[in-house]
Structures are given as structure tokens and as C-alpha cells.
Amino acid sequence: FNVDRLSRINDSLGHAAGDAVLREVAQRVNAIAGPTDTLARLSGDEFVLLLTSCHDNEDIILAARRLIDPTAQPHPGGGHDVVVTGSVGISIFPRDGPAPGDLLKAADAALGDMKKSGRNGFRFFKGEMNAQALRWLALETRLRRAIERDELALHYQPQISRIEGNVVGMEALLRWRSEEIGVVSPSDFIPLAEDTGLIHPIGEWVIRQACFQNKAWQNAGLPPVKVAVNVSANQFKAGSVSGMVQKALLESGLAPRYLEVELTESVMLGDSAAAEAQMAELRAMGVSLSLDDFGTGYSSLGYLSRFPLDKLKIDQTFVRNITTEQRSAAIAQATIALAQGLSLSVVAEGVETIGQRDFLGLIGCDVMQGYLYSRPVPAHEMAQLLAKGRVAV
Ligand code: C2E
Ligand code: MG
Ligand code: MG
Questions:
Q1: Which of 143, 173, 315 to mutate to test the pocket of ligand 1 (most atoms within 8 A of CB)?
Q2: What is the widest separation between alpha-carbon atoms in the chain?
Q3: Distance CA 352, CA 265 (A)
Q4: Contacts by 129-134, CB closer than 8 A, 24 or more apart
Q5: Interatomic CA distance for residues 266 and 134, integer angstroms
Q6: Three-class SS of residue 255?
Q7: Per-residue model confidence as pLDDT tens digits over 96-131
Q8: Ligand 1: centre distance to CA 187 (Å)
Q9: Are 67 and 48 in contact (CB under 8 A)?
Q10: Average pLDDT in the 162-183 region?
Q11: pLDDT on residue 63
Q12: What are phi and psi of 156, to 5 degrees?
């Protein structure tokens, strides 16, 4: 790990400032080293961090980012806020060499490579791993900028009552239009957002946007319906969901009964006390809770009684095969019976055909969401659907 262009600070602000920056960098780097890691200073501005508990490339990339990112935070020194960056070269034992000297050489070569192609980043010794790592990083950098650049948007998919065809709700689905790489699907970037922590600012943006948009529709005189937002397990883990929701409701003026939070089974797994508390808080505010993708996770029935849910969404994998596959039909039917027994409402996701709709109706499901009625549409088209109030098929 090398502090980029330290000589420039020495030259412009003096050696005392350079030393102060180095001490600060050393402290920050030391703070991220684990109990079994070793940190050493090799020369003036070069550090070596020996990691012994990495399992895969992603662990290593994460560690590299954790070296680079805090280094780039401003360093207050000599009355100036000095900004420096750092570069990381990575070698792996035993792949890149059997002895410490080989590993150092390999890391140094990788570092040199990194410095040649711009700084403030990391590089593996061998090229092969770079491609994936860099792709990942490039996407991450772009995603980081997506909010400021106004590249995120919510589309809305109506939920329809089977018999009357009325719009009884809608789900907000995130879209990312990147200037450089085009439209990226949420199933591609949500996992990246989760891994990088970007899910928190993005998740907050989604909640706020959905609340403000729904309130704006109501202000415009459109019939009020609930908007459902997807909230991931990581957001619950961070403990921030109920606070974010409360703030968004307050600031937008949206009544809590017009907001629904969709969560997946993974929220309720493991050490879920924090999730349980936030779910109770949401419920106490008057926000409803819907269990997404039901049947695809662990489907431990225990949590259906333990957690305060209002609704189950039958996953589209069952709906897709409902008319052709006895097993899917049985699961859908059991889910509906379960929901009725627990006084929960049910929505079927991914309804694409009249056959599926009619079968679902036969087994007691009255609210549908899917391409048969409408794809997720931009806000202005959703406004038209709300104005009409119903969707004919
Ligand atoms: P989901 O919450 O289960 O959303 C339903 C997905 O099914 C959406 O995909 C929707 O476009 C798609 N869909 C709806 N009707 C049909 C249909 O009839 N046929 C087929 N084949 N597909 C249909 P989308 O928008 O690509 O979103 C994928 C997933 O990404 C979502 O699954 C959700 O888990 C996640 N996601 C989307 N927006 C957000 C968000 O704001 N926050 C978080 N944390 N996750 C989100
Ligand atoms: Mg959903
Ligand atoms: Mg779903």
C-alpha cells in the first residue's frame, strides 16, 4: 500500500505536514487491521498489510477498499485540509510465490502497474483476477454517482382486484439508467448495492421518492392507493428502516396507511430481534408489511405467527407454472389457505395469462400483479392508470 504523491505534500507544505499525513494514514490503516493481520511500514510512504483471514477475492477487494477509502478522507494538518489517495498492490500466497520475498515483489509489481494506470485503486498481481474486480469496481463507482446524477427512477406496477379490475395498490420498482452503460436491472445492481453498503442511501432514496410521489398523486386529486416499496434484509440489519420511513412520511405528508413495506423471508432469519423491533414500529405507525417472494426462501412457518405481517405475495415461480404443474398449483393453494387462516391478504405476482388469473381466482386469490395487467411503468403512465382507476385485460 502506497500513499500517492506524498512528495508533492512535502514539497508544497513541508516535511512536517508530510509526516503528519503519514502518521494519520498509518493510524487509519492500523484501525482496519484485524487481530490476526500484520501491518508494517516498509519505507517512507509504503506500508505492507498481511491478511491471514481472507476467504476469497471479494474479502481481499473489501480490505483493499478499506485501505483506500479512509486514506482519501481529508487530513486536517497545518491549517489545511490535505487530501491524499492511496494505491494497493495485491499478491496472494501461495499462488504468487512461496516465500515472503516473492510475495513482496509480486505486490510491488502490481502496485507499479496500478500507479501507471492512474492511482487511487488496487491491482492484483496477475491480470486474470483484475477483469472481474475492475468490472465490479467500475460498476460500483458508477452506482455511487447514480443518485447525484439523477439516474435512478421508480417505476410502478399496479395491483389489480381480479373481479372488478380496479387498481387497489401498486409496487414501486427501482430502475437505473446509467449514462454510460444503459439500463441496469435491479437484480444486477441490488446485490452490488448490498455488498458495497450503497443499499442504504439508495434504499432511503426509494422510500422518500415513493412517499413524495404518492402524496403528489393524491394532491393532484387521483384516487388514493397504497404504494409498496421493497426493503432488503441489510437495511433492516442496519436498524434504519423505521426511522427512515417515519421521516419520509413526515416530510412528504403521506398518511402511513398509504405505504407498505415489502420484505423477504431473509429479514426474519437469524438474529432478527432488530428486524422484529422495526417491523413492530412500522406497524405501530400504521404502515403495512408484506412478505415478498413467499415460498422461495426457508418458509419457516414459525415466523408467520411471530412477525406482524399483513400480506403474503405468492412468488412468480409458482404462478408461472400454476396451470401446468401440479406442485406449483398445490403450493399456491396452500399459501392462500395459510394466509386465510392467519387473516393475511394475498397477492399473486407475475400473472401473465388469463388461465393463471382464472386458476388463482378459483383457489381464492383476489389481487393480482403481473404483465397480464401492466408491466411496471414510469410515474406519468402510472398516473394515467390511477386516473382510469381500472385495468381491463
Ligand atoms: P420483486 O420485488 O419480487 O418484484 C417483482 C419483479 O417481477 C419485478 O422485477 C417485476 O418487473 C417483475 N414482474 C412483474 N410482473 C411480471 C410478470 O408478469 N412476468 C415476469 N416475468 N416478471 C414480472 P424487477 O423490477 O426487475 O425487480 C426485480 C427485483 O429487484 C424485485 O423483485 C426486488 O426484489 C428487487 N428490487 C426492485 N426494486 C427494489 C428496491 O427499490 N429496493 C430493493 N431492495 N429491491 C428492489
Ligand atoms: Mg417486491
Ligand atoms: Mg416478488
A1: 173
A2: 80
A3: 24
A4: 129/57, 132/57, 133/57, 133/61
A5: 29
A6: coil
A7: 877 888 888 888 888 887 777 667 788 888 755 555
A8: 8
A9: no
A10: 91
A11: 85
A12: -130, 135
Average pLDDT of 194-216? 95
* Residue 75 clears pLDDT 80, i.e. is over it: no
C-alpha cell at 242: 423505521
DSSP letter at 69 equals H
**Are the beta carbons of 261 and 310 closer than 8 angstroms?**
no
Distance CA 342, CA 29 (A): 52
**Strand runs (DSSP E) across the chain, as ranges?**
2-3, 38-43, 46-50, 75-77, 80-82, 86-90, 122-124, 152-161, 167-178, 182-184, 226-230, 259-263, 288-294, 311-314, 345-348, 367-368
| Rounded Cα distance, 372 and 374, in Å | 6
**SS3 state of residue 164:** coil
Atom nearest to 155 CA in ligand 1: 25
Query: From the CA of 368, which ligand is nearest?
Result: 1
Distance of CA 346 to the CA centre of its chain: 26
Q: What is the pLDDT of residues 315-337, one digit of tens each?
A: 999 999 999 999 999 999 999 99
The pLDDT value recorded for residue 71 is 80
Question: Dihedral sign, CA of 375, 381, 383, 385?
Answer: negative
The predicted model scores a pTM of: 0.72
* pLDDT tens figures, 345-390: 999 999 999 999 999 999 999 999 999 999 999 999 999 999 999 9
Q: What is the distance in A from the centroid of ligand 2 to the CA of 9?
A: 51
Residues 191 and 187: their CA atoms lie apart, in Å, by 7
Round the CA-based radius of gyration of the chain to a whole number and report it: 26
